[in-house]
Amino acid sequence: MSIIGVLGGICSGKQLFCQLMKEMYDYQIVYFDQEIDLNKTAMQIYNNWNTPTIITAITTKEQIRVLKKRNYFHLIYLDSPSFTRYRRYCEKHEIIKFEDFVRLDDKQKYDLDFLELSKNCKVYLKNNTNTFEEFRNYLKQQMAKIIRPFRPDWDVYFMKIAYTVKQRSNCMKKSVGAVLINNNKRILSTSYNGTPKVMKNCNEGGCDVCKESQTLDLILYKCMCIHAEEGCILELGITQTRNTTLYTTLFPCVWCCKALLQAEVSRIVYCEQGNWDLSLKIIQNLIKYDQIDIEQYIY
């Protein structure tokens, strides 16, 4: 279940991209030229939804509007360095000056309709490879992005929630969001970092660490905030936190790791590495001691 549209600059490799997707993953290619019946073609694609389809030559907002009626459609933007595309243009069409190619390229890229179309792109790919095989290998590495699952897996689902929770933080040093779930994939609690309820918020002067220029690892002991990971377990008893999974946008600090160990959280999924150089060995020893399953999710 995958319908992909592809946009890109002049000679960015759109045709090659379509051919490789057909060759490697059995995609059918549909060209949206001016003569097609848009609604009829779209219905044919929808009715044949089990066949992966890639659509090229998209030129109008109406085409995007019709395609977006199905939420398993997504748009990819493919680009390449200007000089690489210039070289391809000369090989494929005619030899022109580089300055003339840039003018031609700018005319397309900064056309208002094209800019509106490109805003719909959710995935950006860079075709800066030099050979056919290099591009093929690059596409294989990017397939998780290209063929987005219609339904996100649990890690994607909960990490996105953690990033939404993070937006509530008013820490001026580093915003963090966390979500605690049980074995039945039910959310037990969510939290973001911030000062205790009785204090002023960070952005109101409640925590002096926000004013410091040093890294968090050096001045963590001064931090007045309840960290996101702590907040998730504070209002729950150990009977609820035992054998749970914590999703956090940032690798936990040493304080939070100790709290998570005490709460008997069994799995930690984090996204950003953080800057815990001084305390990293302590954290690693703590995790190793309790055999917590910890993994990084590339969001």
UniProtKB/TrEMBL annotation:
Alphabetical keyword list: Hydrolase, Nucleotide biosynthesis
A GO CC term attached to the entry: cytoplasm
Cross-referenced CDD domains: deoxycytidylate_deaminase (cd01286)
Domain CMP/dCMP-type deaminase residue range list: 153-285
GO MF: dCMP deaminase activity
GO biological process, one term: nucleotide biosynthetic process
Record InterPro entries: CMP_dCMP_dom, Cytidine_deaminase-like, dCMP_deaminase-rel, Deoxycytidylate_deaminase_dom, P-loop_NTPase
Cofactor or coenzyme needed: Zn(2+)
Pfam family name, one: dCMP_cyt_deam_1
EC number assigned by the record: 3.5.4.12
Protein name: dCMP deaminase
Lineage: Eukaryota, Sar, Alveolata, Ciliophora, Intramacronucleata
